[in-house]
Amino acid sequence: MMIIMKTGATQEEIDNIVARVKSNKLNAHLITGEERTVIGVVGDGRPVEQGQFVRMPGVDQVTPISRPYKLASREFHPKNTIIQLNGLEIGSDQIFVIGGPCAVESRSQLLDAAVKIKEAGGHALRGGAFKPRTSPYSFQGMGEEGLKILAEARELTGLPIITEATSPDLVPMISEYTDVIQIGARNMQNYALLQAVGKSNRPALLKRGMSATINDFLMAAEYILSKGNPNVMLCERGIRTFETATRNTTDINAIPVLKSLTHLPVVLDPSHSTGHWEYVTSLARAGIAAGADGLIIEVHPNPIEALSDGAQSLKPKRFKELIEQVDAISKAIGRDLASIPTKAINSEIMQ
Amino acid sequence: MMIIMKTGATQEEIDNIVARVKSNKLNAHLITGEERTVIGVVGDGRPVEQGQFVRMPGVDQVTPISRPYKLASREFHPKNTIIQLNGLEIGSDQIFVIGGPCAVESRSQLLDAAVKIKEAGGHALRGGAFKPRTSPYSFQGMGEEGLKILAEARELTGLPIITEATSPDLVPMISEYTDVIQIGARNMQNYALLQAVGKSNRPALLKRGMSATINDFLMAAEYILSKGNPNVMLCERGIRTFETATRNTTDINAIPVLKSLTHLPVVLDPSHSTGHWEYVTSLARAGIAAGADGLIIEVHPNPIEALSDGAQSLKPKRFKELIEQVDAISKAIGRDLASIPTKAINSEIMQ
Amino acid sequence: MMIIMKTGATQEEIDNIVARVKSNKLNAHLITGEERTVIGVVGDGRPVEQGQFVRMPGVDQVTPISRPYKLASREFHPKNTIIQLNGLEIGSDQIFVIGGPCAVESRSQLLDAAVKIKEAGGHALRGGAFKPRTSPYSFQGMGEEGLKILAEARELTGLPIITEATSPDLVPMISEYTDVIQIGARNMQNYALLQAVGKSNRPALLKRGMSATINDFLMAAEYILSKGNPNVMLCERGIRTFETATRNTTDINAIPVLKSLTHLPVVLDPSHSTGHWEYVTSLARAGIAAGADGLIIEVHPNPIEALSDGAQSLKPKRFKELIEQVDAISKAIGRDLASIPTKAINSEIMQ
Amino acid sequence: MMIIMKTGATQEEIDNIVARVKSNKLNAHLITGEERTVIGVVGDGRPVEQGQFVRMPGVDQVTPISRPYKLASREFHPKNTIIQLNGLEIGSDQIFVIGGPCAVESRSQLLDAAVKIKEAGGHALRGGAFKPRTSPYSFQGMGEEGLKILAEARELTGLPIITEATSPDLVPMISEYTDVIQIGARNMQNYALLQAVGKSNRPALLKRGMSATINDFLMAAEYILSKGNPNVMLCERGIRTFETATRNTTDINAIPVLKSLTHLPVVLDPSHSTGHWEYVTSLARAGIAAGADGLIIEVHPNPIEALSDGAQSLKPKRFKELIEQVDAISKAIGRDLASIPTKAINSEIMQ
Question: Does the beta-carbon distance from D76 to A7 stay under 8 Å?
């Protein structure tokens, strides 16, 4: 850390800082500038509470030097993490596309969606059984019944499934059904949940909180990694800004920044990051062009009847077009769409 | 809701909307303007999914008319909610000040703090036993041991205590120790937690999420209220903006806006909303001048040794000055500080 | 406009609103909902001051229905505006790329840059002669001398040039030298400047202000259009948000949103929107994939010696790679790079 | 400045940085930490272009140490600047309140307003003659005719006047009429205008841009100061954030932060910072409680008829109440309202 003294800080004030640095068993390096003195603090890597220096007389500000995340950092782990998922390689050169409805609404709705996702060329199926809704009066999801339907859809199509956990006590049960556990934007700093997912044996798809900095986002991933789960995908889904023309502001910069700072796979959710189906395909193309490893897209067999997020859901036909366009973009940047699982539709289940 | 059609929407498009409105058992009122047609939708108060209209051909946008919260709304409950807490009236004309450290760090630290809070004129004691920390490597709190120390501090001073719950499964245990349950900013949309607190018999202090709109904030309160707990205080603690000179941006506007929209008591936390002890007293004065009912302030007997939030914690002496200044501001606006609980310090506990 | 009454507004309050609407020679349509009354106000298209209704007793809020821009709106002008510039078609299916240094620093620097931009396949040359700098102590540009060098660079390469006007009184002089007048982000609501550019006969490249909504942005374009200049390009260059990992946050959503709302060409500036050369090419690809018509890129023959924006400037070699990648993306979405002006380098000027 | 190297930067990369630092005639101090090397750069106070280092191999980031403003800084000028204005001391212990309409709309409107401002106890009169409006179709102000009316109102009441300049070429003319020149939020980084006001002999009231950081704000003040005008008041008027419940978000933190960083007087504009008359008085109280030196308030004799900003304008009667409440707050913090100019109303002018 760097302790920047005020212009005009006295020698005694500087001496006091140095003494306190030493009492923490750290080393102090003084740089005497034309205007200010800066004290560089060097230690053995243990975290040091900055607050103790901020309030000492003569101090202007304290700036950290080290990044607070280690396990998530590309500096310490230069090679890409590749997550294996039913033959799909997440984080490799292959581009993957997850599709599915916001929520599991019924068996027929989900199985219908699953078949269409598969036929369109999607690589995995999403669908929420436990829904975090802004209003207590909105549809809150089908619960475990929804998980069973998701498992049935996997049986039917061979597509791996992804669904959200909203509370730490649900993680063991959800892990039994799902292939990937999603942590929603509102829960990105629900540390009890992050720790529970860190102890599970399922890959996690961690959505960025709507006011989380990239640093906060990587610290949330660090929570999961630090509990022993190395398989974390980071999902940009838009941040909250002053602009109201779209539901959120897609932080497209975050894609190359994350690819530079971390070895974890990066996914874009253009459905939530725009909030309107008309913009989803443009953003899906942009996300892959910017360097994302995959996409997660809301698709509903009949969006107009959706119980949630109907405005941002694609119809299956448009989802197919999206995949074709994403394929073209992937090739233009020297990557390729992952091949889809070969399992045929198990038509017995549909009956 | 109002459905605003595009300029140039066809009669057929308008007819389709009207038909769909009617199929929802709602009434449609057409307003034909110089540029656009607007369709007002009127029903019986049941929530209607907007998404179904947003994506219909010819629609430009859909605007809700009703506010989505009911129990929290002053329109439906004009009189102030007053929460009774050991003789303290929260939400009445009395101004109250909660003080205490960010975290319970040890028995001696907390009992020392409690006595000094009491001597300075504080009305309640805060202290975290379960700490949501950005880094998995930071001090995470003393857990139940910390709750026991808090209860002891109440025994010692007579001050009611307030502490944070970070997970729904902790709520029953925390309820046994604490007088008020705090829900932190990062958990404002942790709906499982909100529901658990809604089922407890303890008043809640709900902190605003750092990117929550006032509407989101009131919807989070609605979750608690809808589960049967009528005693919710709303705490403004700063929002995240582009400004980095302070830790957060105090949304001081939110104070009169909340007092106008809701009957629930409103509290300001100037410690988190500024992040620096030098600004806390100015903001405490401003919060009361703007119309807040109370304050929650970080106070540490020795901030330089604090394990967290040292930079924004006041020393007890400055906390006493803050209370004196807040007293003067209260009187200037025709209100008064609440009187402090009369119980003498139980000096046996200190030994 | 829609006037939304409070729940519990009295009949007298409603009558007063209706009377005031009529006194403005407008029509009032009442919609009586389950909770509230809404009054739709319909007129002949003249702007009406909303403030008069906001403060009347019983009013909850007032919502505009019409969009405030007309000349910029695709609703009134469905066909794309195509700007002709020395054989380049801006806003057509062709993709164009403007390159050049932040500032004209010397004759040799700019002519060197110009030749390299041309050789790399750039379509136009940028360079500032009047620089709006945050600090009064920074390099403020070469002034008219810089404009002369720009004109010489055009002579040398055949590339059209673009340079910024920072004050209305400079517009006539700058118009004599430049092909396109740039209005910088800080001046997006400098209405005297917008009007001066609106009266000039040069196309304008209007940069979005760093806290301008898309609506504000289109209103700024409307100022230029309303003074008679139909040739306006809109340039997204990043907005200010809480995220500090990049200089600004590229609002990539704005690209498809603008293409939907307006007929004007849309350009992305990934140099300013990221602030770091390492991210510029990724974002250039993303911008074209999202639907932008062109790019403006900072390129410096020797960025390490640049007097401004060195961190975000590309070397000519990387600019060439960027153009190759943008070419591939353009083809993937069924568009094409514009062909470059055929004029050979006029080597006499270089001596 | 501090140059922070990447973990794993090579010795050669470090040597190259050091060589470049020396070639700038600066000194380099190396701090070798457990993870990274930091290079402290010390010079003689001349500004150094950071961009040259940001892009060198092995560099992670570059952090400035010095503040970029000097003349505005309290570090270099510890004593408060006090601006003398017709016997009013701005920046002293006295609190002052400016009132008046958004725009001069007619002679009778302004003279009526002026008399009522005076009678209510206001210290100065505001009113715009050149209005920067978001829409080119809105009322743009009365121009020089409005300035003449303002001068007449000063003659009538003895109140000093304040009005906005929107373009550098207007500054000489406006200076002849007004006592204080206002620079609006949209023009905070209109450097040509700042320089023109810096050369005038009138005090300036500089409004913070809606997305300006406190650092940007002080740099804008530095522009004016650097041209020789020492009399600058800083006006907080709300920043743009995600919250839409109010027109802007009052950055109340900015008040104590500015008082700590600069010697210039600080003013709050609660009319623009809230956008709604109902919240203005609460915020006026809060601003003074937080430490502001004065207020600027929109007051209109008949807000419902105002041509702009009617929703946020106070009626004269409420303005009088505001002043009484601000008086009580001022006394509670040991300050006092300035006494009003003693000149009697010159009733001949009214006829």
Answer: yes
Whether residue D8 and residue A75 make contact (CB cut-off 8 A), yes or no, is yes
Touching A (3+ Cβ pairs <8 A), the chains are: B, C, D
User: Residue A19, class by beta-carbon neighbours within 10 Å (0-12 exposed, 13-18 middle, 19+ buried)?
Assistant: exposed
Predicted TM-score of the model (pTM)? 0.95
Angle ∠(D233,D238,D241) on CA atoms, nearest 5: 145
Q: How far apart are CA B159 and CA B123, in angstroms?
A: 6
**pLDDT at position C316:** 96
pLDDT at residue A306, as a whole number: 86
Model pLDDT, residue B35: 82
H/E element, B260: helix B254-261
Q: What is the DSSP string of A291-350?
A: T-SEEEEEB-SSGGG-SS-GGGPBPHHHHHHHHHHHHHHHHHTT-EEPPPP-PPP-HHHH
Q: Is A7 on the interface with C (CB under 8 A)?
A: no
β-pair partners for B38: B4, B31
| Predicted ipTM of the assembly | 0.94
Measured in angstroms, the CA of B201 and the nearest CA of chain D are apart by 32
Any chain C CB within 8 A of the CB of D168? yes
Q: Do A243 and C282 touch (CB under 8 A)?
A: no
Q: For all residues of chain A together, what is the average pLDDT?
A: 93
**Subunit contact A44:D34, Cβ cutoff 8 A:** yes
Among candidate residues A138, A136, A78, the one with its CA nearest the CA of residue A260: A78
What are φ and ψ of residue D197, in 5° steps? -70, -30
A215 to chain D, any CB pair closer than 8 A? The answer is: no
Q: Which residues of A touch C252 (CB under 8 A)?
A: 250, 252, 283, 286
φ, ψ of residue C220 to 5 degrees: the values are -65, -40
- Among C135, C211, C308, select the one facing D210 at the smallest CB separation: C211
pLDDT at D348 over 70: no
**A67 Cβ under 8 Å from any chain C Cβ:** no
The tokens describing A329, both together, are: 């973009």
Note which residues in 43-62 of chain C have CB less than 8 A from chain D.
47, 49-52, 54-56
Whether C12 contacts chain B with CB within 8 A? no
Condensed to tens digits (0 to 9), the pLDDT of residues A121-148 reads 999 999 999 998 888 888 889 999 999 9
Contacting residues of A for C254, CB less than 8 Å apart: 243, 245
Q: Give the nearest partner residue to B332 out of D255, D291, D329, using CB atoms.
A: D329
Burial (CB count <10 Å: 0-12, 13-18, 19+), residue A190 = buried
Is C258 an 8 Å CB contact of chain A? no
Surface-to-core class of residue A45, CB atoms within 10 Å of its CB (0-12 exposed, 13-18 middle, 19+ buried): exposed
Q: Which residues pair with D30 in a beta bridge?
A: D39
- Cβ contacts of residue D40 below 8 Å, gap of 6+? A31, A33, A38, A40, D1, D2, D3, D28, D29, D30, D31
pLDDT-above-70 percentage for chain A: 97
Q: What is the mean pLDDT of residues A85-92?
A: 92
CB within 8 A of D348, min separation 6: which ones?
none
Residue D346 pLDDT > 80, yes or no?
no
CB B250 within 8 A of CB B274: yes
3-class SS of residue D143: coil
Tell me the mean pLDDT in the region D84-91.
Answer: 92
What is the C-alpha separation between A238 and A250, in angstroms, rounded? 4
Q: What is the model's pLDDT at position A315? A: 95
Q: Does D260 touch chain A (CB under 8 A)?
A: no
Residue B313 at interface with chain D, using a CB cutoff of 8 Å: no
Which residues of chain B are under the pLDDT cut of 50?
none
> What is the residue type of A214?
I
DSSP for residue B351: -
